[in-house]
Amino acid sequence: MAAVEKVEEQLASLRIAKRSAPSEEPAYLLDIDLSRPAQSENGRFVAVSCSNKSIRVYNRETLQFLREYSSHPGILSGVRFAHTCDSAVLSACSDGTVKCWDVRSATQKPVQVFSGYPSNVFISFDISCSDLIVCAGTEKVEQDTFLVFWDARGVTDCASSAKEPLGVYSESHNDDITKICFHPVEPNLVVSGSTDGLVNVFDINKDNEDDALISTCNSDSSVSFIGWSGKDYKQVYCLTHDEGFCWWDTAQLDTEEPITLLRVLDVRDSLCAENQSLRYLVGGWYHEKAEKLFLVGGTSTGNIHLISCGTDGLGLVGTLCGGHSATVRSFCWDPADESLLTGGEDAQLLLWKPGAVERSLTKKASLKIASSVHRRVRVHDSSLKSRKK
User: Fold this and answer.
1) What is the pTM of this model?
2) Number of domains in the chain
């Protein structure tokens, strides 16, 4: 228990250590990922997907801007570094591709393109922890919703070629697939979430989709974020577009025990933070050292709430103030030095460290930018259709 308290104290003591310089073209920062501990001499990289259809790359230590990959034919969804190569970064695109760039190179041409089928519009994706499989989720087109899979071997040495899909899952969701998340240590396990309310866990080593579907959990709402948690990552959780939270234990699937650990219909109602009411949830992460799940939420003025999850409910750990001036849209937790990166609608990328003191003497002026971010998720139909057998 002492370890949890110490970690919660550390989280509450996060302060701004660095902020990126203002960009010439302000954009919402929609997703953030960090390269894994690097073999390269240049240190680690931060990649950010932006509302202006670009990916920006920064130096992890200084937040110095390095390069930008732009001029994409479609909207980008998500950004992920390969696990075994700190220079390969991927993003899904609404043009029906997943593209991979080598961040050491300034060339705008992706080093690898994973092509989907003609009608595919990708809005989510992930790469397995072994870097062997890429999976992307589609928007619903007519009656079709797909999880599309590719063989990703070669991505780590950036072998230039276009790749065709290995195959698809088409039966398990009946609306936009908003999130995909591979298991952190088991490369054959992947969880998907959709506006149909379902959170599905698959074992992709199985021969067909029916056998691959290990469990279907229903959030009864439109899924905005999913992740793995718990010892050996046997738990799955999701956040919903109406700020709900669901948490399940897949280890109980073959037992008589209920698999639901906690369900909160509206996290805003269950948390009141010192006159700073929670307006939205951003996502979550599992803290291995504390063996605890944490959520990130915030206010429209840019304050960030850190929330701890227990089977007995949710609790506010701390509020990070004075950084962002508008809604926070993305974050990435770095376990290496227990720091937090955050990005928002104010176009700022911030690095928070325990007890840090910001070097800059000039406080950043409020920069709420006008952006025509296309909200790619339709409000879900509350009369959820039951899953077809």
Assistant:
1) 0.89
2) 1
